[in-house]
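Hello,

Our lab assistant flagged a job as stuck in the queue for most of the afternoon. It eventually completed. Since we weren't sure the result was trustworthy after the delay, we are filing this so someone can double-check. Below is the sequence as submitted and the structure that was eventually returned. Let us know if re-running is recommended.
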Amino acid sequence: MTHSILVVDDEARLADVLAAALEDLGYRATAVENAREALSSLEQERFDLVLTDLRLPGMDGRALLQEVRKRWPEVPVVVITAFATVRDAVELVKEGAFDYIAKPFEMEDVAAVIRRALRLAEVVRDNERLRGELEGRYSFENLIGTSPPFRRVIEQVTEVCETRATVMLNGESGTGKEVVARAIHFNSPRRNKPFVAINCAAIPETLLESELFGHVKGAFTGALANRVGRFAAADGGTLFLDEIGDMPIAVQAKLLRAVQERSFEPVGGTRSQTVDVRLIAATHRDMRQAVASGEFREDLFYRLNVFPIQLPALRERREDIPILAAHFLATLAEAMGKRVTGFTPAALSAMDGHDWPGNIRELHNCVERAVIVAKSPTIDVPDLPRDLFEGGARRAERDRLPNDLDAELERLERGFIIEALRRTDGVQVQAARLLGIAERSLWHRIKKLDVKLGRKIAE
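-- returned structure --
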């Protein structure tokens, strides 16, 4: 994209020369002779940068800077000044000018300052765009669902987001724990500070302490420089400790002190660091059972479990499935540029009958796959993964209790063995490998279950 620059100088010849030089550098340049013309140009056309002389007739460069900062704060202003007024230019930088250029100047210096200004302006715009997207994505309106279990979650998020309380999110994998954590952060007084997430189950125990608290140079082999940990990175904001239930017991003691005192020492360090961090923890485990079994410290659990929120599984909020599916469909269809607008009743019925062990994450993946393969504006059963419309039968099978458990287990074992033999054309070595058992064990089971071997495996 070609950047557009507005040059403001009451010396018409200098303004024209500057504009021509900037165009030679690949910019689009417009030259005007006073601040009033500059403001008029800014009102009529979009400019990426203003390059203005400090001394202008009538409204001077300082007043122009203030007006641009007020009305177009995203547009950087670079001031040109005579050497004698450099002090004034420094004051203008404090008031919001990006930089100043002293006369006489070389064009290379002007070009360098303009490149820096435009690069910084692009970074600022990108940050504002990303922040806007994040705040929109994690607003309450995007916590989607009207079922009673999920309405309760939204009520709890509303109650806790304005506080400093530590939150514990419980729920199966894929129920949206991180989405809820981000919603709490972006609707709290800390929304303009960092949201830092760490998955405690995804990092080896030997590295987890360093990831959380940082380390000093030379603390261990490979520590070639000081490293800032997640606690320090989240200072002023929110630290999200995902899968806290899988944190190794050895790291829990140091975490307990950080939670209690909001202070810690980096690995290998001797000086404590204090941080202002709001903690949100999440887990799929039964934490009280983990405490009872000695896998999780009881004192740490109670420090983290100040405000518990239980996220329901998708099968516990089936009435939300059509709403969530429609939301994912609209987002994905737009992103893929496909004209897919809805689901057939049969497709919705199949989705309602599925157990969704992967919860919302699985539903999202299902809709994404359906949008990709759909040939018409309406998603139908053939567009869905096959296991979805077999879900009702599986659930009925699961819910039915056998009258004779031994016979039922024998039936299942026999079925697996027959299927393995069929897939391997009766070759028992390969069938045993498929089933993960020894060949001798398979032979004994075939004999016990009276499985007939031959050209065609029979029941």
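-- support follow-up --
The delay was a queue issue, not a problem with the job. The result is valid. The chain is about 50% helix and 15% strand. Residues 405-449 form a domain with the Arc Repressor Mutant, subunit A fold (CATH 1.10.10).
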